[in-house]
Amino acid sequence: MADAARDRTVTSVYNDVKEYYGKTLKQKSDLKSNACVPSAKPVSAYVRKVIAEIHPDVVAKYYGCGLVVPECLEGCRVLDLGCGSGRDCYMLSQLVGEKGHVTGIDMTEAQLEVARNYIDYHMQRFGYKNPNVNFVQGYIEALVEAGLEDKSYDIIISNCVVNLSPDKSSVLREAYCVLKDGGELYFSDVYSDARIPEHLKANKTLWGECLSGALWWEDLIRLAEEVGFCKPRLVSASIITVGNTELESILGDYKFVSATYRLFKLQKGLEKKPCLVMYNGDITDSEESFEFDAQYAFKVDKVMEVDGDVANILRNSRFSEEFTFQPQGVNTASSGGCWAKPNAVSVNPFELVQQLGSASVSPSTGGCCAGQESCCN
């Protein structure tokens, strides 16, 4: 059982969260802290247009942190963990298209009632003959028990929900089970700079505000790899300020960050070999460049060197058709030519925030071509 359940049972945590998000919070302004912050990654005009199509009642009842919008979604099957009122599901419904499908799962019936009430409204607005969205009541720690099939989803997203779970390892294990090979868990959440003690976890308000249930970021890395995921890829991070003097005094010196990670499920035993890749520019809303994570930003028709982990991810996921790969067996260190190098960034989200705020981080389009535009043109 997870650490948080030592002092409180899993059932009591579930009940507290249902109470907080089903009854205590009536609208977003009822939140008592700044834990729900905008995404560190700018929202494109394309995504803003998609969100504008969602009914105001659904948006008003949404209490998520940031915004998670994975790329290359057309035709995919997507699962939203802790979907709440369904804002992200209806956003994704437009991005996967009528041939794709989105499932939202949440344990709070009051939130699901809002989501379900607007299925017909959104399908008509999007021009779909048949719904490509459904909502399931259940626990994110027990996806199979809720009726979701193993290896049935291309992508799983989650938006500021994993921290509310009393059993994070089960969330990751279940996500791993229902993902297809090559699938991805792409999620934003709150992380702490150290393990949170039990007396803070027992505070219902701190837990409901997504603070005392936050994982120490190093524990996420460990748990993800124990479950079987590839090493987590850090996409973005931003510091959270609590903004409530009473809660700040209870929390003491603990610090928090909102961070987005990508976790991929790949077959075991793949050889890790760096290679050169070129982005083809065919991903919707990323036609000129594709920001894979904080380390790798690919420009269309520009060659970039990737490490063995990223090479395997790109070759064995939904991104495989979006890149041209240098033939196997060519040594990137000796093949000459000119290509971009990845950013040298920290895997620590707190350090990443500091790095991104300084001039010490070189653009990923640098490498041997930095300052020499004619070199690769």
TrEMBL record:
Record's catalysed reaction(s): arsenic triglutathione + 2 [thioredoxin]-dithiol + 2 S-adenosyl-L-methionine + H2O = dimethylarsinous acid + 2 [thioredoxin]-disulfide + 3 glutathione + 2 S-adenosyl-L-homocysteine + 2 H(+); arsenic triglutathione + [thioredoxin]-dithiol + S-adenosyl-L-methionine + 2 H2O = methylarsonous acid + [thioredoxin]-disulfide + 3 glutathione + S-adenosyl-L-homocysteine + H(+); arsenic triglutathione + 3 [thioredoxin]-dithiol + 3 S-adenosyl-L-methionine = trimethylarsine + 3 [thioredoxin]-disulfide + 3 glutathione + 3 S-adenosyl-L-homocysteine + 3 H(+)
Molecular-function annotations in GO: arsenite methyltransferase activity
EC number: 2.1.1.137
Record flagged with keyword Nucleotidyltransferase: no
Biological process according to GO: arsonoacetate metabolic process; methylation; toxin metabolic process
Signal peptide annotation: none
Protein name per the record: Arsenite methyltransferase
Species this protein is from: Danio rerio
